[in-house]
Design brief:
alpha+beta, Aminopeptidase, Alpha-Beta Plaits, 2 domains, 5-stranded mixed beta sheet, 4-stranded antiparallel beta sheet, 7 helices, 28% helix, 26% strand, elongated
Length: 358
């Protein structure tokens, strides 16, 4: 294994791409097009560099980004951000914080309450209560998960909100009670039911809606939502519905970025070229898929996610270890070597396709 931050996502695949280019250079293989490796440096912060590239340079007629898993991803759900102010000038909360990033289920959450409540709060698994300098600190521990796959997570914001709503029933002012009621519902489920945007399509499955980060800022408690919507849905229409629902609760909200989905037919000639390359190298069927994750494919024309992990080599370090962004993140040598082969053969297949279409 190659172990270390970025080996899978996406430094290892980038190096595999370099080796693929080296293959063509060292073997003197002429192609009917220019072959180029473009390295983006803004993928985690909005992917603003690829649109800049597209505006200032000639874009490829087709490209793929190894920022996913094999076989070939023919579509990515759209992505929305929504910021809901659930409470302002709370009587109960000095602060309410939770989560670390918007695009993940909150694994921890903490509320600092004005006053001493420990004697009134019962013990509960996953909840810790302490009193510090005349204030009560209540913390909840859940389980984090990527916003594209929230099924594996347990939202600590929802746990904490439901606990406080239950334990302090009858002692809350109306706006604090309403805030906790909303938070306990909206962050404890991930289908967007609470926001009124639940739905699915046959191409990409169901919509997901994750409460990622809650923060207290200038007396306001603000909850962020990361929404991954099916490829046949319209993002602005979903935001209209969500905003109407939020307003009906008596809250204010702010719309964030709408990153639109993409989708290519599995019958597209270039997709078939990638499928053929994978099946030849791995000697197993290749079934194109769609996902809720976001890659550069959504922000660059005629691009799909392709590679570089292979399912049978995942989980080799045991449950809960070795995932992307972790310190023991890994890419197996087999995945790396097969990626180089698949990339090379994919380019050769596309070259043959171009020759045939001349």
């Amino acid at each position: 294994m190659l172990i270390g931050r970025g080996t899978e996502d996406d430094k290892g695949p980038a190096v595999a791409g370099l080796y693929a280019l080296r293959f063509f250079k060292e073997h003197g293989i002429e192609l009917p097009f220019t072959l180029r490796l473009i390295l983006g440096g803004n993928e985690e912060r909005g992917m603003n560099d690829m649109p800049y590239y597209a505006q200032n340079y000639k874009v490829p007629f087709f490209s793929f980004t190894p920022d996913s898993s094999f076989p070939v991803c023919v579509g990515e759900k759209g992505s929305l951000k929504l910021y809901v102010t659930v409470c302002e000038d709370s009587q109960l909360f000095e602060s309410f914080t939770g989560g670390t990033v918007v695009n993940a289920v909150a694994g921890r959450a903490k509320a600092v309450l004005r006053g001493l409540y420990a004697s009134k709060l019962s013990k509960c698994e996953g909840i810790e209560v302490t009193e510090v300098e005349g204030k009560t600190v209540v913390e909840a521990v859940g389980k984090t998960a990527h916003a594209a796959m929230p099924e594996a997570g347990l939202n600590a914001i929802g746990l904490l909100s439901a606990y406080l709503l239950r334990e302090l029933d009858g002692q809350l002012c109306e706006k604090d009670r309403k805030a906790l009621d909303f938070l306990s519902k909206a962050t404890s489920e991930y289908l967007g039911k609470t926001l009124g945007i639940q739905g699915e399509d046959k191409e990409s499955g169901y919509l997901t809606c994750v409460g990622g980060v809650i923060k207290t800022e200038n007396g306001k408690i603000i909850q962020t939502f990361d929404i991954r919507y099916p490829i046949t849905f319209v993002g602005e229409e979903l935001l209209d519905r969500a905003e109407a629902t939020v307003i009906s609760w008596g809250f204010a909200c702010e719309r964030g970025r709408n990153s639109k989905p993409y989708y290519f037919s599995p019958e597209k000639a270039e997709i078939k070229a990638l499928v053929s390359a994978y099946e030849t190298v791995m000697n197993e069927p290749c079934v194109p898929y769609t996902m809720g994750g976001g890659t550069y494919a959504r922000s660059f024309p005629n691009t799909v996610a392709f590679g570089a992990t292979i399912e049978k080599y995942r989980g080799l370090l045991g449950e809960g270890r070795g995932a992307a962004h972790d310190r023991d993140e890994y890419l197996s040598v087999a995945e790396f070597e097969n990626s180089v082969k698949i990339f090379v053969l994919s380019v050769l297949n596309i070259a043959e396709l171009k020759q045939d279409n001349k």
